[in-house]
Amino acid sequence: MPMSKVIIFLSFFIVTTAATSAPIETFKFESAEAEKSFHKLSDELRCLVCQNQNIAESNADLAKDLRLEIYTMLIDGQSESEIVDFMVQRYGDYVLYRPPFKPVTWLLWFGPVIVFLLGLVFAVRYLKTQDKDEQDEHLSNEEVERIKNLHAERD
Amino acid sequence: MEKKQSSLLKRSLPLIIFSVLVVLLAVGLTLNPREVPSALIGKPAPEFELPLLMRDGTFSNKDLLGQVTLVNVWASWCFACRQEHDVVKYLSRKGVRVIGLNYKDEADDAKNWLAKLGNPYQAIAADRDGRSAIDWGVYGAPETFLIDKAGIIRHKVIGPLSDEEKYKALMDVYEQLEK
Question: Which of A32, A67, B52, B121 makes a 20 to 30 Å CA pair with A54?
Fold first, then answer.
């Protein structure tokens, strides 16, 4: 392949990687802690426009605005929980990737355990009936005697 | 006899479980995950004070008080807003107080849009940077809020009002409030 073609071929990769990478903005933080909070929050909050992305990864306009919002609140010295409350008040629990623990979400949290326990109960009961069936097939003492006799005859 | 019955139940158990699953999945398919229930229903409209689009002055949440009001979040760049515009105009003609919240729009674009398609709004608050819309929990235009006389948010429609079901649900609440 001539060199020019190789370069054109390679340039496709440059374009595609640039298009798929997460949006980059330069937010300046005074402390490493605030920066950590920023990344944690934007990782844990859902972007409502493109629902399967978090605010950190989304290119949506609203996600951009919300990143800025989180940033300004952190600079103002607000705590992580204050910022999460701010988001929940406006967008509901749905913005949280980690659902809160409360009566409405009990089924969500306990559901898998309940299903597992139910499965366990069914499995145990099923295995027990299997045992029973086998016992039913067991030979009576009389039959065992007969088999022994037959063996003895052959020997 | 009893044993026969119980084994019939046992045999049809997989079928029963399967049917329940099918029903659950069918219901799941009809749900629209885009429609996130508003966290603001039953709460007072958020505080805001924004410049008016069509004239000098500002519009604040206090201006919502006293009358049942629709707050319609729209933008000239929003395709679905165009779809629902005739419905907004119809409501306005019928005497419903409709306030526009112009969301992340250029003033000139918004004015041109209204000049072309008609302006059904009694007042339009311009939210250039979308900061107020965040307080309203807006995540995409169009969205329409129904506010009662005391300034409490009673209902929210996500997406165009031209959807018959959504329109009916909105008007049901509206008529109750107007009573």
Answer: A32
- Ranking A115-119, B138-142, B166-170 by mean pLDDT, the lowest is B138-142
Residues of A in Cβ contact (< 8 Å) with B33: 51
* Exposed / middle / buried, residue B161 (Cβ in 10 Å: 0-12, 13-18, 19+): buried
**Least Cα separation, residue A127 to chain B (angstroms):** 14
The pLDDT of residue A48 is 76
ipTM, two decimals: 0.74
pTM: 0.72
For an interface test with A, give the residue of B7, B34, B36 to mutate (most A CBs within 10 A): B36
